[in-house]
């Protein structure tokens, strides 16, 4: 069974992020990830540290906390990497994972566009989600996933991130 957290962030909270992306997207370059994609990763490897996105970073952190509590495993940690991906018509991303040789992480993606092609998880079971504007998905870093080609003329814009898991909290879950 796949463990994918799905929720959403209110549209009002995303307006600042969308304006930020629209203003800077001309700086995003194609990346050699064996697929056509434009990304902010070439410019900044942790875009959520930009002042214009700090409120969004806080909202994402709240969802990471909710994800961990729902699984009853809570980790200290931090968002180590975050980047914007822009998919023009025909652009896609191949199956991949976010595994690091150094850290264990949770990975996530937040959708900043209205018309999104599907994200597909797992090489065998193939679970598709067609995300909506403001949807946030969080999953383990070793879960294979890919982006189905964008068949729209509209840009498909997402913000991806990796939350590094540090110390697992070993305290008792105290109920009121």
Stretches where pLDDT is under 50 for at least 5 consecutive residues are none
Kindly give the count of domains.
Answer: 1
Shape: globular
The share of residues in extended strands comes to 25-35%
Average pLDDT confidence is 90
Structural class: alpha+beta
CATH homologous superfamily - what is it?
q2cbj1_9rhob like domain
Kindly report the CATH topology: Jelly Rolls
What is the number of beta strands?
11
Strand order of the largest sheet: 1-9-6-11-4-3-2
State the helicity in percent bands.
10-25%
Order of helices and strands: EHEEHEEEEEEEE
Task: Supply the CATH architecture.
Answer: Sandwich
Largest sheet: 7 strands, antiparallel
- CATH class category label: Mainly Beta
Radius of gyration: 16 Å
Distance between the termini: 31 Å
Topology:
Elements: E1 5-8, H1 11-24, E2 29-30, E3 38-39, H2 54-71, E4 75-87, E5 93-96, E6 105-111, E7 119-121, E8 127-129, E9 135-140, E10 145-147, E11 156-168
């Amino acid at each position: 069974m796949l463990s994918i957290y799905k929720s959403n962030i209110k549209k009002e909270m995303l307006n600042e992020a969308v304006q930020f992306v629209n203003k800077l997207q001309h700086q995003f370059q194609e990346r050699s990830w064996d697929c056509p994609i434009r990304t902010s990763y070439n410019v900044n490897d942790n875009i959520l540290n930009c002042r214009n996105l700090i409120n969004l970073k806080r909202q994402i952190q709240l969802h990471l906390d909710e994800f961990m509590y729902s699984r009853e495993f809570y980790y200290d940690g931090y968002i180590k990497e975050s980047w914007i991906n822009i998919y023009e018509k025909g652009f896609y991303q191949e199956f991949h994972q976010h595994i690091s040789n150094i850290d264990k992480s949770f990975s996530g993606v937040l959708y900043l566009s209205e018309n999104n092609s599907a994200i597909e998880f797992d090489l065998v079971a193939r679970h598709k989600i067609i995300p909506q504007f403001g949807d946030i998905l969080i999953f383990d870093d070793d879960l294979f996933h890919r982006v189905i080609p964008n068949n729209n003329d509209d840009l498909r814009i997402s913000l991806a991130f990796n939350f590094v898991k540090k110390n697992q909290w070993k305290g008792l879950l105290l109920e009121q």
